[in-house]
């Protein structure tokens, strides 16, 4: 009978968690996908790149909201059981409250493992894959970005200005500035031009103009027709991997190097492991491996709900206190990341904090249980 009632409890919590988490994930994803429309409207990427980049952000969104949705699911179901007198079934079947607590804590470990898998593997993997789509992207939608009398700097190191765009696609009075390097750039003027596609590559064909090369000595070349291969240029969208997209093993290796007061380039120069970006590396590592440790702490706090009855006059206030304490733990877990350092001495307090909180709260739980 015990197995049956606990199976029903975990089923209810899991069902509520899945439904609410998926719903919230989709809401956040849609909002984020709308914000990512700049990939097309401003950066000139294709709909395929936009869709794949947005789709691959789902694991990251899911992992970010998982702790709160776990807390909300557990809180809601236990209150629901209490208000429907379903918790009495556990006590009548010989389940004591310590045993109930241990079952819930064991259940919370499944969420902890799930969160660790997402934060340490799936999220970095999918974020890096999303970045790879950006790296392989071409300026397919650049023609749609061309607007009259607006400076267009979507392409890195290249600024384009069009005075007028005819209905047939002809461009009138074109100005381009190409910043080839720090010491070299060229300016191009043309009376007219067209954007064409040759073998899936974008070309800007210019007519009747001149090229001014700004070097040590200015040089001017006149032309009747010339072409610029826009595919040789890249979008301003960041293509270099961010710390959030790097493998967890690489971050741990970097922390080991930093703890020995060393500096080193990792992953073929992808990660510059030096004290200047140490705080970002530490924060990201803690976010992946440290934050999930707070899930059992949340489960423990919420289990204080079983120590009182809905018939007590202060039950509503008691629920509010438990909800507030759980929310405070979530806030503290996030804030602790901001103050993390590199050395073990600086981080030891943050590493042991969830364990310390768990032991203190568990002691209070057992003490309060004696007075029931």
Which regions are unreliable across 5 or more consecutive residues at pLDDT < 50?
none
N-to-C series of helices and strands: HHHHHHHEEEEEEHEEHHHH
Number of domains: 2
What is the averaged pLDDT score?
Answer: 83
Largest sheet: 6 strands, antiparallel
SS-based structural class? alpha+beta
Q: What count of helical segments does DSSP give?
A: 12
Report how far the terminal alpha carbons are from each other: 25 Å
In the sheet with the most strands, the strands line up as 1-2-3-4-5-6
Percentage of residues in strands? 15-25%
Rg, Cα atoms, Å: 29 Å
- What is the global morphology? elongated
Count of extended strands: 8
The helical percent reads 55-70%
Model description:
This protein is an alpha+beta fold and 372 residues long. It is elongated, with a radius of gyration of 29 Å. The strands form two sheets. The chain has a six-stranded antiparallel sheet with strand order 1-2-3-4-5-6. The protein has a two-stranded antiparallel ribbon with strand order 7-8. It has twelve helices and eight strands. The chain folds into two domains: 2-136 and 240-370, no CATH class; 142-232, no CATH class.
List keywords for this structure.
six-stranded antiparallel beta sheet; alpha+beta; 372 residues; 2 domains; 55% helix
Short structural description:
With 372 residues, this protein is α+β, with helices and mostly antiparallel strands. It has 12 helices and 8 strands.
């Amino acid at each position: 009978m015990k197995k049956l009632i606990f199976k029903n409890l975990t089923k209810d919590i899991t069902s509520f968690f899945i439904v609410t988490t998926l719903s919230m994930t989709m809401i956040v994803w849609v909002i984020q996908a709308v914000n990512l429309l700049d990939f097309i409207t401003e950066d000139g990427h294709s709909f395929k790149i936009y869709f794949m980049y947005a789709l691959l952000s789902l694991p990251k969104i899911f992992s970010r909201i998982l702790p709160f949705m776990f807390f909300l699911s557990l809180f809601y179901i236990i209150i629901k059981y209490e208000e429907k007198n379903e918790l009495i079934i556990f006590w009548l079947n010989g389940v004591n409250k310590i045993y109930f607590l241990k079952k819930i804590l064991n259940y919370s470990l499944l969420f902890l493992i799930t969160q660790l898998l997402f934060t340490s593997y799936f999220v970095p993997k999918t974020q890096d894959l999303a970045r790879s789509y950006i790296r392989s992207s071409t300026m397919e939608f650049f023609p749609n970005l061309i607007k009259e009398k607006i400076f267009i700097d979507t392409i890195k190191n290249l600024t384009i200005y069009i005075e007028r765009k005819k209905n047939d696609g002809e461009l009138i009075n074109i100005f381009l500035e190409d910043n080839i390097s720090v010491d070299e750039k060229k300016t191009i003027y043309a009376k007219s031009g067209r954007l064409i596609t040759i073998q899936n590559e974008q070309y800007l064909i210019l007519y009747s103009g001149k090229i001014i090369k700004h070097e040590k000595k200015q040089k001017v070349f006149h032309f009747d027709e010339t072409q610029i291969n826009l595919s040789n240029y890249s979008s301003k969208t960041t293509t270099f991997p961010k710390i959030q997209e790097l493998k967890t093993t690489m971050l741990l290796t970097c922390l080991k190097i930093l703890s020995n007061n060393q500096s080193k380039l990792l992953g073929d120069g992808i990660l510059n492991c030096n004290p200047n970006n140490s705080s970002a590396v530490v924060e990201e590592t803690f976010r992946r491996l440290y934050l999930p440790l707070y899930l059992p702490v949340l489960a423990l706090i919420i289990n204080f709900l079983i120590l009182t009855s809905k018939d007590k006059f202060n039950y509503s206030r008691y629920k509010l206190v438990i909800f507030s304490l759980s929310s405070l733990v979530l806030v503290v877990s996030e804030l602790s990341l901001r103050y993390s350092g590199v050395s073990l001495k600086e981080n030891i307090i943050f590493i042991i904090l969830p364990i310390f909180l768990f032991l203190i709260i568990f002691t209070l739980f057992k003490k309060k249980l004696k007075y029931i």
